[in-house]
């Protein structure tokens, strides 16, 4: 947080800030208190509604559900990274006949909602006689969508490098593949690592869309247990709080990894220092890539 | 082709509903997101904390989970009964606001330091400085990333399919009820989204090019 937008507060401003802080805290507390009051009024945390935690069967199914979410994430992430690498390479190709189709594929898959893709694979393809499991449908959709986004991230990363890098490499007599793998990729990957990881966070969150096509992941587990009116009296609230905490925990873990890598990256002396007006441009390209990917939600 | 022409009315109604859902959520999330961004850069630490907490929680929660909360869990609290459509708008707005906030905040960071300093020297208050000097300049550089956030919102409206809210994502349900070819129907839905998103992407790229040169 920079202090750019305001001066260091003096005694008057500090007093004013304290008053505003009290008002702010009071407003938030009031909202929270109201929600908790509703929780109590509708008896969301009665022993009957919290009873599900004690069942071994349910605990095991929770672990299985988390396992399903994580395996969809892991397989989807690996496939998306491979897909992204291939299509980024294709889009950076010197040959127009490779570049053009790759560009079309990437742009189209970025434009189609993930939900529609999952529906297509799960409900659409059986019409043509191809039956896919929910897991396969989820993983394929995640691969196509996030792979396309990652392809754009990789491309932005390589394009953000100073031209001198590839020119120098060519001047040394390297071939195209050598320039890419030995000079450009290592630098681009380092610069793009935080963006890639934040896209992987998006991918992790998107596995929850499997809920819509009956993929047995964490959220589906939550609605199943939470909707159980017979044995637990619909403990939806308590179950959803647990599910949300797990999702947030997993995502924060990944985000933390991204921040850690960024910090380590900043210390790294191998990162090229760009001169003159370049940093601005690179930063812009980078930040737009960051935002572009982060905002794919 | 016959799937589309036979059900043209269904497709048009569904996509109109998608656009309506998108438009309402877009306006709400832009307003809330800008407000949150103002909180996040405000001089009062508590406000910054509230803004950061909101963004951290919402950004790390799957949108589907937000939907589940507002459609399945919220009614159990018996506060105010809301329609599934309203619940979808609320979920989409709250979720997207966190991303809008981050975009606006990064836009504020691109405004040169001198602007804020000069406003302070002129004696503008924080709200005046933000509203009259910094935000108008920030919004300029924010258009490209904001467009992609809005594109994402447009696509995210389809998540409502799982919650009985009629829009483009539920065309499949109606088609399979009528025994139509779902595969082709979904292809047409996908094409519909490509047609909606492509112009936006194009506009975004144009702005990005123009303004990256200007700076």
From TrEMBL, chain A:
Keywords: Cell membrane, Membrane, Transmembrane, Transmembrane helix, Transport. SUPFAM superfamilies: MetI-like (SSF161098). CDD domains: TM_PBP2. The chain crosses the membrane at residues 21-41, 70-90, 102-123, 135-158, 237-261. Pfam families: BPD_transp_1 (PF00528). It is a multi-pass membrane protein. It is found in: Cell membrane. GO terms for cellular component: ATP-binding cassette (ABC) transporter complex. Its main location: membrane. One of its GO terms (molecular function) is transmembrane transporter activity. Residues 66-258 form the ABC transmembrane type-1 domain. InterPro entries: AA_ABC_transptr_permease_3TM, ArtM/GltK/GlnP/TcyL/YhdX-like, MetI-like, MetI-like_sf. GO terms for biological process: amino acid transport. Belongs to the binding-protein-dependent transport system permease family. This is Amino acid ABC transporter membrane protein 2, PAAT family.
TrEMBL record, chain B:
GO terms for biological process: amino acid transport. The keyword Endoplasmic reticulum does not apply. SUPFAM superfamilies: MetI-like (SSF161098). This is Amino acid ABC transporter membrane protein 1, PAAT family. Belongs to the binding-protein-dependent transport system permease family. HisMQ subfamily. Coiled coil: none annotated. GO terms for cellular component: ATP-binding cassette (ABC) transporter complex. GO terms for molecular function: transmembrane transporter activity. NCBIfam families: HEQRo_perm_3TM. Gene3D superfamilies: MetI-like. CDD domains: TM_PBP2 (cd06261). Residues 15-204 form the ABC transmembrane type-1 domain.
